[in-house]
Amino acid sequence: MNKLQSIKLEALDLPVFKEVRGKDWVSFGDKNLYPDKIIDLYNTSAMNATAINSITDAVKGEGVANIGETIVNTERETLNDIYEKIALDYVLFNGFVLNCIWNRGGDKIVEMYALPFDKVRSGKLNEEDKVEDYYYSSNWSNTRKYPPVRYKSYSTTDNKGDNASQIYYCFSYTPGNMIYPLPSYVGALNDIQLDARISRYHNSNISLGMSGGIFINLPAGEPTPDEQRTIYRDLVNSFTGEDNAGRLFLSFSEGSDLAPQIQTIESANDDYYTTLETRISSRIMTAHRITSGRLIGVRDEGGLGNNAEEIQVAYTHFSSTAIEPKQKKINKGLEKILYYMGIEEPVNVIPSTLDFNKNIQGEV
Fold first, then answer.
1. β-sheet bridge partners, residue 27
2. If we measure between CA atoms, which residue out of 153, 100, 94 comes closest to residue 118?
3. Bigger pLDDT: 265 or 233?
């Protein structure tokens, strides 16, 4: 009897936030490394990175009006420097983190720093469903070498002594998540992952000169189950996955010809990948609330035409749904901290100046 085996690629599941016995913090997804997965998708999907960078550029605009050049810490970072960092984190993760340091009397914040969102984990909820502590590690995959450091959750009262250095953890609420946020584009994460995999697949095809999958039949009889698993594992590790451009099918059978039989399985045609990539791009832009690819430098296949007025209408919608809500959340959080730094002026971002006619004429 022939036995046929194939490979299954798993979808990207939503993270589970759970308390772990013996740990002071709440696990942020599988192995407490969900933020690392979001960063990986940002670095490997060109469409996702383009969308995030474009949104971030629009969120930070030309900087904060009037108070943007105010020095906010001993490293001489300005408010604009801080805004640029937390804008990217907020677009990428749907949250940002500030480290606030109070003076000895606890009546004024004297320094403010932006901490990388992926380096911070939440402590467990208390009886009032509030987080009292946060933990910072430069590498959550190796907490023995990089032990987490405890910080007091932001408080205007319990802010003296060891609690003078605090973490202000700001994120947008999503149903069912009281501790960590999900990215605003969470519905497209599988498409983003697929975008990265297709890119690696095509690159491997070109590099190796291979296109189809491979079917291998070993007709010298059936090995034992353990031998089959060993042979299959070795072949899979050598030839399969998007980095090796293809799938491999392996069977064992009785036969007079002892030589292995290898047959190439033709891959899908170019139209299939073109359609798939168009679908992926559309879903990624939809998840980021981008109504026209032209807004992020991607030429549309249809949709809005070259009319500058239509593009401007698309940008107005993009600004009101994808940009302004993020700015409001960031600005409101910053204003809380700046108030205790003695700065009561509202945080207003100077919008980026766009010439829609110039952008259209400059397209290739």
1. 18
2. 94
3. 233
